[in-house]
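User: structure tokens for DUF3060 domain-containing protein, please.
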Amino acid sequence: MSCSLLAAAIVLLPASAFAEEIRVEGVRMSRDFACDGQDVVISGQGNMVELKGRCGMVKVIGVDHKVSFDDAQGLIVSGMSNVATGGVVASLSVEVTQNVVKATLKPVEGSAEVAVSGADQKVDLVVAGPTKVTVEGSANVLSWTSEAGVKAPTISTSGIDNRVTRR
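Assistant: Done. Predicted tokens:
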């Protein structure tokens, strides 16, 4: 590729292709952000974060975070005693222990995917399109409801004392 073609290709790329992720690292910080399609990483302990607009991948890692979001490509909650409350996601992963997550699952294409593992997780979902759910580990509770006309999710479970219920 010639230099002029490479330069033209770079100019035509959307600004978000070069955007850095939003990072909140530390202890007991409070922040609000407009995502503008960016990925978000929240780590540390006890942070309170409100995410507005459409986010890329949101990762909540650590202990005692409280996160709210409008819309995200995907959500990963890993750690202990985190609370993530949000709008729409296409994928969700909850791992380790005692996390509480509430979200609406809507696939971008194909099926939305949910993976819950670890112990004592509480996950509350609204299913807004084809969804595959896997629950593993022990004493996890997943409750779900679906929007009008949406079929029940495909659910796979293993482990000990896990509960999956339709509200």
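User: Anything notable?

Assistant: The chain has one helix and 14 strands.
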